[in-house]
Amino acid sequence: MGVIGKLFYYKKKGNLKRLKKWEGELNKCIRCGYCYELCPLFKSQNWESDTPRGKLMLIYGMISGEIEPNQQIVEKLFQCFYCKNCSDNCSAGVPVTDILTDARADLIEAGFDVEGTIVNINEDLCSVCGVCVPVCKYDALSIEKVGKDENKIVVDKIECRGCGLCVAACPSGAISQKEGCEVTLPELHKKVTDLLKENKDMKAIVFCCNWSLFPGMQLSESPTLVKTNYGLIVSMCSGRVAPELVLNAIEEGAWGVMVAGCPPEECDHDGNYKTRRRLVLLRNMLKELNIEPERIKLDWFSTKESAKLTKSIDDFVKKLEKLGPIKKMEESKKIGG
Amino acid sequence: MKIDIEKLKKIVGEKNLSDNLADLYVYGADASVHQALPTVIVKPKTIEDVQKIVRYANQNKIPVIARGAGSGTSGHTVPIDGGIILDMKRMNHIIEINPEDMLVRVEPGVVDDDLNRALKPLGLFYPPAPASSRIATIGGEIAANASGVRSVKYGATRDYVMAMKVVLANGKLVNLGSNTRVHSSGYQLERLIVGSEGTLGIVVEATMGIRPIPKYRCLAVANFDKLEDAGNAISDIISSGAEPSMLELMDKIGIIAVNKAMDLNLPEVAAIIMFEADGNVKKAVDFEIEKMKKICEKHNGTGIEMSYDLAERTRLFSGRKKLFASLSRYKEGIICTDLADDMGVPNSKIAVTAKKIHEIAERNNVIMAVYGHCGSGVIHTKIMLDPKKKSQWKDAEKVIEELYDYVHSIGGVTSAEHGIGLSKAPPWKKARSDILPVMRSIKKALDPNNILNPHKLHDAPDDWVGATNLRYKVG
Ligand SMILES: Cc1cc2nc3c(=O)[nH]c(=O)nc-3n(C[C@H](O)[C@H](O)[C@H](O)COP(=O)(O)OP(=O)(O)OC[C@H]3O[C@@H](n4cnc5c(N)ncnc54)[C@H](O)[C@@H]3O)c2cc1C
């Protein structure tokens, strides 16, 4: 191999110097797989390589030289929403998400460029208004000068947590995330539609923030069980629940929509403040259309407060049953559409 | 190995098959020390899918390894010869809950905790629950005859298997067992599949017994300054005729580890035991708890706390539930390997075995915690060592040989609940040489081409360290 070839080889392979520091921690992972149950990505993808355990195995394989990083491996490693359900609950104490952040840094340095769960800016649609920049609590978005009078929005692929708040905030619809992880607007829309189609008795759609709790994360399906008259959708941050998702649910026949998020001071992304503002506006909008505003509910839940969540949903559904179905569909359609 | 990927894709659909390295590497490992690469992973959804895949594999003599959650501790699902990993997790429907006949009918990929979540609103439960119940699948539990904390009263998976649909190595589907509590109609073939570790057939549906959730559960914890005292208390509780619904031991190493990992603030005494009684009559539960408490006190148990409250019981038990992983935090530079993990000993031998384990560990430069569902005779250990040092693997080999020789000499078994797989095969084969030919004949009759999880159990290599790559970077 010539000098240039060697340089290329090293560049591509990288020396994974940040990751190598984690060897001791990776050895501490007993590979019990308890993290499977807690991982929203595993629930949506159903491949063990998408679980925290799977990702740690891949990283171990790379630093021990057993496997060479390739595009598919790197793609897997860049898929994480940083809900930290895994690291917070790992009794071997393995700091999974810190290791994944270092993996991103090392692999970008090694020349890999993948999408993962990171947001993508469509420059043709982006007006560089900058609304997204302060929305991101991780400073993953910035405005960069690219010409004399030309700016563009740049995404820091190491820092982006994939929460999707910027996607919901962008007025031009220029920010998107890869399909397949059940977090994009079209995917969430589809989930809402499917839930309402599958169960004609469904009264409410409930969007639950994945950070504050992980409801509905069970891995098995049980169609013969008692059917609920509400549908749970685990979104990422509650700030991700765009207004059109709520309106879409109402348009598709839901009697009401509830959003469950972290309490204001506990949100990792400050997304719940945005949700609160957004839902106030939506309620006003319903009022104008002569639809009862209480058909949209927002409530806060701390980690693992699932009993409180169940009660809050029950109360909401009872209220909706009293209100009955929405009558003014025609006008709400105008707004939703 | 030549596998017709396109043919398999046609069976399960493109997105339910993978032969890319990212997936192969992950599906080549489980919770054991072993690692190997399969050739392809397929995810069947229906019984017919499984039949077609197995039929194809049999015609072409390709290994097929059924995989649930891959939480096996001894390399059960590690594809030692490559081949097809049959990921059963897509077959995850609870098909029927039948309180009248007190049974459930499930697909094999249903997760144990999910089943219990579904049963709870009906006041029912599926008792065998291993500690790994949050991910372990019913298929994996059947194939390993899993048991758990409540097995001391409620028994192991084998006690709940009623009927089963199994795909044999030739792709044929057979119905085993019945929907009745007992049957005396020929060979109990459903029982043969229990503990078969994926080597005799693929479970594609299971009918399991269920029980009503008792009205009262009371959990108590007692501290001991001597490990032997705790061991003797356990043996006495069982032989006294008391009926614990849980009887667990945890030694000081385990206590320190969970305190470190989970900030639990448990008293760092030589050992604690946790005992539970359950039932529908509170006075009867009180009676059992009092009886066990007195036995603990007789063996110098102190600081006995007890509670009926669910939150408090969960708090008392949280350390035990996550003990295995916490052991990795016991000491810097030392990690917890899944070796010598679950022997079973006769009830009278708990204390001597616990003592012996610490003695063997110390003599061989490793650390071993002693804990487990000791009420049912299950003693868990783990070998804690520095995985980077080659010499430590030699130490581990010596420990395993010595320890199992001892366990077998006192009438114990190699594995009480996790199964044999790869890492426990050498000591087990040594102890059970009399039954190996019988097992091999059964295997040959059911799987003449040796495609179902080959080279495990009776056919596993005699050198567990060299059987596959180790998951750790040694040296
Ligand atoms: C932290 C931890 C704690 C544990 N605690 C316990 C415990 O308390 N008690 C206990 O008994 N075990 C325990 N285990 C071991 C393990 O979880 C059990 O053996 C469990 O039953 C395995 O289930 P699985 O779905 O992960 O199976 P896998 O590991 O995927 O497979 C286990 C075996 O079953 C076979 N198999 C899987 N599905 C099928 C099928 N459909 N048909 C035929 N064969 C199949 C596989 O080929 C393999 O041989 C523990 C493991 C860990 C990591």
Lay out the secondary structure.
The complex is a heterodimer of chains A (337) and B (475).
Chain A: H1 3-13, H2 17-20, H3 23-28, H4 40-45, H5 52-63, H6 71-77, H7 85-89, H8 96-109, E1 120-121, H9 132-135, E2 141-145, E3 151-155, H10 165-169, E4 175-176, H11 185-198, E5 204-209, E6 230-235, H12 243-251, E7 256-261, H13 271-288, E8 296-300, H14 306-323, H15 329-336
Parallel strand pairs in A: 5-6, 5-7, 7-8
Antiparallel strand pairs in A: 1-4, 2-3
Chain B: H1 5-12, E1 17-18, H2 21-27, E2 34-35, E3 40-42, H3 47-59, E4 64-67, E5 84-87, E6 94-98, E7 103-106, H4 112-119, E8 124-125, H5 138-144, H6 151-154, E9 161-167, E10 173-177, H7 189-193, E11 202-209, E12 211-212, E13 216-224, H8 227-239, E14 246-251, H9 252-262, E15 271-279, H10 282-298, E16 302-307, H11 310-321, H12 323-326, E17 335-337, E18 342-344, H13 350-363, E19 367-368, E20 371-372, E21 378-380, E22 383-385, H14 390-409, H15 425-431, H16 436-446, E23 469-470
Parallel strand pairs in B: 3-5, 4-5
Antiparallel strand pairs in B: 1-3, 2-23, 6-7, 7-11, 8-12, 9-10, 9-11, 13-15, 13-16, 14-15, 14-20, 17-22, 18-21, 19-22
Helix pairs in contact in B: 8-10, 8-13, 13-14
The complex binds flavin-adenine dinucleotide (FAD).
Flavin-adenine dinucleotide is lined by residues 30-31, 65-73, 76-77, 88, 108, 130-132, 136-137, 139-141, 143-144, 146-148, 197-198, 202-203, 324, 417-419, 453 of chain B.
Outline the structure in words.
The complex is a heterodimer of chains A (337) and B (475). Chain A is α/β, with parallel strands linked by helices and 337 residues long. Chain A has three domains: 107 residues, Alpha-helical ferredoxin (Fumarate Reductase Iron-sulfur Protein, Chain B, domain 2), CATH 1.10.1060.10; 57 residues, Alpha-Beta Plaits (2-Layer Sandwich), CATH 3.30.70; 152 residues, no CATH class. Helices cover 42% and strands 11% of the residues of chain A. Chain A is built from 15 helices and eight strands. In chain A, strands 6-5-7-8 form a four-stranded parallel β-sheet, with helices on both faces. In chain A, strand 2 and strand 3 form a beta hairpin. In chain A, helix 5 packs across helix 8 and helix 12 packs antiparallel against helix 15. The longest helix of chain A has 18 residues. The radius of gyration of chain A is 22 Å and the shape is globular. The N terminus of chain A is likely disordered. In chain B, a hairpin with a 5-residue loop joins strand 9 and strand 10. In chain B, helix 8 packs across helix 10, helix 8 packs antiparallel against helix 13 and helix 13 packs antiparallel against helix 14. By secondary structure, chain B is of the alpha+beta class. Chain B is built from 16 helices and 23 strands. In chain B, the strands form seven sheets. Chain B has a five-stranded antiparallel β-sheet with strand order 6-7-11-9-10. A five-stranded antiparallel β-sheet of chain B has the order 16-13-15-14-20. Among the domains of chain B are: 123 residues, 2-Layer Sandwich (Uridine Diphospho-n-acetylenolpyruvylglucosamine Reductase, domain 3), CATH 3.30.465; 110 residues, Alpha-Beta Plaits. The longest helix of chain B has 20 residues. At the A-B interface, helix 3, helix 5 and helix 6 of A face helix 2, strand 6, helix 4, helix 9 and helix 12 of B. Bound molecules: flavin-adenine dinucleotide. The site of flavin-adenine dinucleotide (FAD) has 37 residues of chain B, from strand 4, helix 5 and strand 11.
